[in-house]
Amino acid sequence: MMTRAEVISWLRETDPARLEDLWACSDGMRQRHVGDEVHRRGLIEISSYCVRSCCYCGLRAGNIKASRYRMSDVEIWDAVKMAADFSYGTVVLQSGEDPGLKTDRVASLVRRIKSETPLAVTLSLGEREPDELRAWREAGADRYLLRFETSDLKLFRAIHPDLPGRRSDRLAQLEVMRSLGYEVGSGVMVGIPGQSFASLAGDLRVFKDLDLDMIGVGPYLPHPETPLGSGWKPRALRSGEQVPVTAEMTCKVMALTRLLCPDSNIPSTTALATIDPERGRELGLLRGANVVMPNLTPLRYRAAYEIYPGKVCIAESATDCHGCLERRIRALGRRPGKAQGGRRRGPIGEAEILRRSHGEGVLDRR
User: Are residues 212 and 258 in contact, defined by beta-carbon separation less than 8 angstroms?
Assistant: First the structure.
């Protein structure tokens, strides 16, 4: 088990030969614990409304330039049918934190998906009340994804303003989800302003401590209609080191996540593909990831779901995206998964994996 100091040292590593060891070891861990299948989660961005004012997100309530929409049940169902037709294992219903998505409506959608398709259902609808989470779980939802973005409480409070009378505690929300029987997913941004190497190493420790089933890691991409994207930085966070926003840094975090959490599902994110359009998805899959999330949102809504600008594949149809990802997966010698792809806990411990795949001490620091 790597110490915090070792994790920080790896995050600072720049030697290409040493990084090749890291990539190889994380890929070996991936292959042994979760196999060569790449699970496909069909993403449907069902609403761009949000009551939150997170300082980095283009959907924030204060962005008066944002286009807002809510998909109809018919539109959502059409996208769900595409996921089933493409033999995806999971459909992901994602939105801003939108009170207009009523509890009963979401529960009804989940029940229909579970009764009429073989798909697993992941929800990513923001911070919600325990009664809502319980209702959706009882309707059949399998997983819930809520990124805590940073475990550094000072940084979190600075960039996530609370709603009036409602204190935000995403780590507590994740525990509630687990108690209700969800597979629990979370994650962080790499390079968010104010993020130090020490706080990022703390995030990796939280991944391990929470025993997360799904872990999403992507680079911070600034949106011009947000405080952080406009150059603002909280006074308390203006000094000290800053984690850079690069594809390599994101891959280091992803690779270390695989080593610390061997059997978790880890996506090669759209944000990584956005920062490196030519090879981003492939680099993620070669450095620990085993999931991709093709976008099934109707084209007329894609540009409006602008968490950050310049997202890849914004004008690509669901059919084109499906074909492109399948070709990319197979070109790596991997195969597209067709099952639901829930977490599969591997029988072999991390130390044994390291010994078998690369020899004793490969990841020991100099």
Answer: no
